[in-house]
Amino acid sequence: MDIARDFVNQHFKNQEPFQIVxxxxxxxxxxxxxxxxxxxxxxxxNTIMNIIFGGLKSIPGVQGQIDKEKESLKNKISKxxxxxxxxxxxxxxxxxxxxxxxxxxMTEIRDKEEQNWKSNKVSGxxxxxDEKHTDLMIKAYSLFSITNPLHPDVFPSIRKFEAExxxxxxxxxG
Length: 174
What we know:
There is one protein chain. The chain is mainly α. It is 71% helix and 0% strand.
């Protein structure tokens, strides 16, 4: 402790009290600024990037080019997500469809969509196309399709299933 005290006293021996106070305040400011950078680095980076890109967008013609690119991307996404070849219902019909007609339409749509994922050209959207597995999922879903997990007091089995899946997952992850 004496070594540290001697070092500080030696460092400040020829300085006025005012200079010492200013140096301490400046040191505290530096420490707080470093702490701010460490804890808010992402926010600072975003602020700097916003300033830079804001300046770039103010260059004549740049904002117009950005708007063109945005519109082009929007059109590409809309085109990719467009539903084609299917009758679209835009209003609730005055008379409902017969159950057989509803199921026929839904089966037709499902059959067309199956071609998309059964071609094995997709990843991560259907985890198993095995018919036995699919039949099991359909039966399991139909058993509990009217339940509502927001009401565990009425449907405690759903809470049980959820807790089991969470526990299994937690055990897998250690």
